[in-house]
């Protein structure tokens, strides 16, 4: 039986798109430019905040890429503002809002993934129990 989704079966790395193999790359964009390097750095940093690229779902990778590209565009616009160049305030507002939504979505995923750390009282109790067990040996 064939799948209804294209590419849903196992595909070799050589038969996938460059973006699938390297999510921090953009088709047709030279990654050596300042914007390309910034995009790659942001993708890597955001993925690391979520536990690393290997632990991300495809939807999360797309969200990371979108957040990085919106951030690069917003930073470029901020540079134009600081240089005194004319900027469309509506466009700046849209970029800021899109960035906030995407980063908020990633923040929600990050907090959902964090393991529950023990409270201070639990930590101290565990530490005291280990010290007592170590002294009794």
Q: How widely separated are the two ends?
A: 63 Å
Roughly what is the average pLDDT, rounded to an integer? 81
Outline the low-pLDDT stretches. Answer: 1-6
SS-based class: mainly alpha
Tally of distinct domains = 1
Largest sheet: none
User: How many strand elements?
Assistant: 0
Can you give a write-up of this model?
The protein is built from 5 helices and no strands. By secondary structure, the chain is mostly helical. The chain has one domain. The longest helix is centred in the middle third of the chain and has 25 residues, at 58-82.
Question: Could you write a compact summary of the structure shown?
Answer:
The protein is mainly alpha-helical and 137 residues long. 64% of the residues lie in helices and 0% in strands. Helix 2 packs across helix 3 and helix 3 packs antiparallel against helix 4.
Show the helix and strand layout.
Layout: H1 18-21, H2 34-49, H3 58-82, H4 89-113, H5 120-136
Helix pairs in contact: 2-3, 3-4
What characteristics describe this protein?
137 residues; mainly alpha
